[in-house]
């Protein structure tokens, strides 16, 4: 059975579109931004390894968080991520396991 992990998010359209999740000693950002040219959200999350984030980093606009990323780990389809029934509290940890986390 998959392990579910808690996350925090900003922006929501069908699913969270900007997620911060901690797993082990690492912090990760999953970003599925809105594309104005296509008039829709990206179908993939870009997964970034982040430095340690403190409470002040998580206040206000999260769109600036990507600039703090240590590196891009890769991308995963939004549809491949399992969320809890509310889609607002927990996600399947397998998404990070794909990157050896």
Q: Are there runs of 5+ residues with pLDDT below 50, and where?
A: none
The helix content is under 10%
DSSP E strands, number: 8
Mean pLDDT: 93
Please state how the strands of the largest beta sheet are arranged side by side.
7-6-3-2-1-8
Largest sheet: 6 strands, antiparallel
Write down the domain tally.
1
Number of helices: 1
Radius of gyration equals: 13 Å
Beta content comes to over 45%
Intertermini distance:
17 Å
Going by helix content, strand content and strand pairing, the class is mainly beta
* Helix and strand element order: EEEEEEEEH
Give the CA-based shape. Answer: globular
Report what the structure shows.
The protein has one helix at 94-97, and strands spanning 4-13, 15-23, 26-31, 34-35, 40-41, 44-50, 71-77, 90-92. By secondary structure, the chain is mostly beta strands. It has one domain (4-97). It has a 6-stranded antiparallel beta sheet with strand order 7-6-3-2-1-8. Strands 4-5 form a two-stranded antiparallel sheet. A hairpin with a 2-residue loop joins strand 2 (15-23) and strand 3 (26-31). The protein is globular, with a radius of gyration of 13 Å. The relative contact order is 0.27. The model has no long low-confidence stretch (mean pLDDT 93).
């Amino acid at each position: 059975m998959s392990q579910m992990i808690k996350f925090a998010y900003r922006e929501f359209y069908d699913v969270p579109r900007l997620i911060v999740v901690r797993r082990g000693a690492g912090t990760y950002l999953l970003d599925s931004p809105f594309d104005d040219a296509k008039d829709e959200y990206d179908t993939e999350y870009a997964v970034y390894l982040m430095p340690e984030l403190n409470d002040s980093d998580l206040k206000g606009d999260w769109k600036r968080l990507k600039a703090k990323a240590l590196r891009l780990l890769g991308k995963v389809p939004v549809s491949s991520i399992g969320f809890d029934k509310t889609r607002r509290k927990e996600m399947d940890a397998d998404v990070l396991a794909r990157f050896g986390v």
